[in-house]
Amino acid sequence: VTAEISVGDDAVIRGKNVEIIATANAYRNLQDTGAAAAIGESIIDVLESISVFAAISLSEATAKVIIGDGVVINGDKIDIKSQATSSASSLVVSTVMGFVVGISTSESKLEIGSAGGDPVYIASDGDLNIYSNTSTRLAVSTFVMHFGYGPGKLFDVAFTYGEANNTNNLLIHNNVTLVAGGNADLKAESLK
Questions:
Q1: Residue 116: φ, ψ to 5°
Q2: CA–CA gap between residue 11 and residue 79 (Å, rounded)
Q3: What tens digit of pLDDT does each residue of 117-160 get?
């Protein structure tokens, strides 16, 4: 999932409350619990015949806000935010072998101006908030049941791999002037 906002060079934005917000949310939930709907004796019969279950859950969210050179933004309150949230979860229940892979990746980039570019001027009569946030969640589980006889008698194998990645960039170049009549908050936050 990708959300991107680009404010081109020399753009002028004026307003009471100015909000420039790119939000990307990606959620991937994969559960493979075999034939769990069967009842009583039939559950055991089905589970005895299961050899391998596998699940792969990949989730990626990218959010970008790019403010070009020569841009002027004026307002009573200004919020510029780039927010990416990614969640991957997998669950496998099996006999003999179970394999799970989960990868969750979040990337947020908020860039204002460029090195050596035309001046950028952002002025708020009140608060000025510039945030770049990433949040990544990962939950992967493998359960391999052993009944002491049948396919899993000699061995049972469970493999679980999980990877969570955050990349967060808040870049305010040297050609940028920020003015706030109230609070000025600049934050880059990553949660994992």
A1: 80, 5
A2: 17
A3: 999 999 999 999 999 999 999 998 887 776 666 555 566 778 88
Task: Average the pLDDT over 68-76 and give the result.
Answer: 97
Maximum C-alpha span of the chain: 75
pTM: 0.80
Characterize 150-189 residue by residue with b for buried, 16 or more Cβ atoms within 10 angstroms of its Cβ, and e for exposed.
ebbeeebeeebebebebebebebeebbebebeeeeeeebe
Provide the sign of the torsion angle of the four alpha carbons 124, 129, 131, 135, taken in this order. negative
Q: What percent of the chain has pLDDT over 70?
A: 83
Strands (E), the chain: 2-7, 12-32, 52-67, 72-95, 97-112, 120-124, 128-145, 157-172, 176-180, 184-191
Q: What does residue 175 show for φ and ψ, rounded to 5 degrees? A: -100, 15
Laid out side by side, the sheet with 97-112 consists of 2-7, 52-67, 97-112, 157-172
Distance between CA 144 and CA 157 in Å, rounded?
7
Q: Is 148 exposed, middle or buried (0-12, 13-18, 19+ CB in 10 A)?
A: exposed
